Amino acid sequence: MFSKTIKLATAGAFSVLLASASITAQAADSSKPIVIPTHNWSSQVVMAYVIGGIFESIGDTVEYVPADSQAVYEAIRNGDITISHEVWQSTFGKSFYNAMEKGGIIDAGTHAASTLEELGVPHYVVENNLCPGLPNWEALKDCAAVFATADSGGKGRILEGPQSWHGDLMPTRIKALGLGDKYVVKFAGSADAIWAELASAKKEGRGIITFNWSPNFTDADGFDFIEFPPYKDGCRTADGGDGSCGSPKGWLKKAANYKFPKTHPAAYKTFSKLSFTTTQVGQMAALVDIDKLSHQEAAKKWLADNEDVWKPFTE
Ligand code: TMO
User: Has residue 259 been placed in a domain?
Assistant: First the structure.
């Protein structure tokens, strides 16, 4: 620990000398840690360690903090957390823009991957015609019984993610679409609880509706998102609408505290260049959810296997 600090200090002093020798060189990054948040889905946590590893490779110090995925934008604005590397439009766009309006958080660019966060069914549900008409949402009107579970009171059960992600968005939507008498929305305690339910339903060939997203490890398996009435600006209750719309086909952004470009210019430049594709984000999730590596091991493996992808971000 101590010798690492000394080494860092020496490296810092050395780059100050180098910087003064060159007009174009920029100030060295602060030795203060870059604070990276971890949330409760696999790609986000793996990517936290991937990005931390990239920052360390250019001499920066990093720190990881578990954070609520909605409150994090306020924490970045206040400077308690430095970055967010997976800002999903549907779920977090509003909190991100609200924080931006107050000041202190900046848009650090968009990943190549586009996103969808939506209710859906495993592909066999469509293939085996368990609910004829799917993936069109109107098919749901006639097959609540197909999705009933022991605890759903005879209604169809919709397994939503943890409530911390987007509150009552799905229960509100189901009611607004007139499906409230036929379906009940249950919140999963964790993403792992969704994967466990999907696995047991698949084993039994049983109908199941869950929240899911893309990019994710389930992209490879085949997961069919339900086609709800298209998303339009203002259609959600939070934006003044009645909530009877599906999720947007959205962006995946990066955010940073507004001082990050000044305190850590090299890390900021790297972070703003950094962009992952659908395949790459899916790989990060799969290393944990399919291959059962720890998040840290997954990040180490991903970095080792993909130097050609991430090294250019640092140059
Ligand atoms: C925020 N999430 C990717 C779980 O929808």
Answer: yes
